[in-house]
Amino acid sequence: MNVYDSEKMLDIMKNLGYQTAETPEEADMVLLNTCHIREKAAEKVFSDLGRLKSLKQTREAEGKDFILAVTGCVVQAEDNEILRRAPYVDIALGPQAYHKLPEMVAKIIRKKELNAKDKNNNKKNIGVINTDFPTDSKFDFLPAPMDKKSNAFLAIQEGCDKFCAYCVVPYTRGIEYSRPVEDVLKEARLLVEKGAIEINLLGQNVNAYHGEDDSGKERSLGYLIRKIAEIDEIKRIRYTTSYPSEMDEEIIEAHRDIEKIMPYLHLPIQAGSDNVLKAMNRRYSVKQYMELVEKLRKARPDIGFASDFIVGFPGESDEDFKETLKVVNDVDYIQAYSFKYSPRPGTPAASLKNQVDEKIKIERLDILQELLNQKQLQFNQSFVGKKVPVLLDSKGSQGQLIGRTPYMQNVHVKAEDKYLDKITDVEIVKASPNALSGKI
User: Fold this and answer.
1) Rounded Cα distance, 311 and 345, in Å
2) The domain containing residue 190 runs over which residues?
3) Is the pLDDT of residue 408 over 70?
């Protein structure tokens, strides 16, 4: 979702006459799009802002324009902290307000012009800050896709109503909102016009999609995917991120019936212990999760699962952690993201008394990641000697093209540019935990 938001902000700025710069030193405006899901990500924002402060001062001392903007979830969650720690920021916009960038940029430029004319004018600490949750959908104000891409993101849903005990999303992205079916299909067709043959549908809780069709009837993700699959030019469909208890029969049947849906599903469990899942306010049990995995495998035997894991959640015991390892072995995940629990201000879990010692969290994360890497390597090695359809959508170094298999594996292959933005059969010759190497 953050990548999608960044692309949309780039489209907005291009409409204002801006173009991308390779480095901050070359730029007239630097925009940081931020994430608040983990403490490390949020702190990195303030570290980056500290480095950009000196660049901003240098540029302004030379009499050159320089706008420093911050958008995204850190702004939504910590607007007062930005005011305190980075008063030199010109623009701060929450994730629901970035479509207002043109208005904000115009205000800042006008303010800088007035300051230049009035030497006695006292500058305010921050130019513009906006953390509103507008009633109108920001998607109604975003520009059409501008760049040609064979692999495109398409946001269909935003926000979350689940209120997991550790998560800031409901507070930074708001409650669940689903775009109307026809709006999604219209954007999909525009992406096709720009060369898209793979569409990745996005949402914080994407399979909770409930957008209305033209008759006003709410439709599910399974229905929406069937409509998108009717667009001939689209060859691959993905969606992320899913909430296990929102996987209904309609989407399971879509996996069975629609070949365009890739056989890779990101289905986060977070923990393999019912005690921890209950404390997290995850609304399913391990048994229900495993039954869902079996249903999906029955519908689509070649499906591979990815997941998210949080270790060291408050109250997690050694036995709870062992149960997580058991789930990893039972499901045989082909890929996963795993993190230490990170207390986020304002979330219920942050105030729990039974926090797990940091040393224990590190030890558990090391054990989990070693097991997950083994699983991922074994899966990747099973492709050596096989031919796999790969969408080669970007250029690497030394004459390489880079793409992804149906299972989201990174593939590097030496190939001519004529293969770029096409699905090509690649013979896999080497595998590592994180990538495959092949030849055409």
Assistant:
1) 18
2) 138-381
3) yes
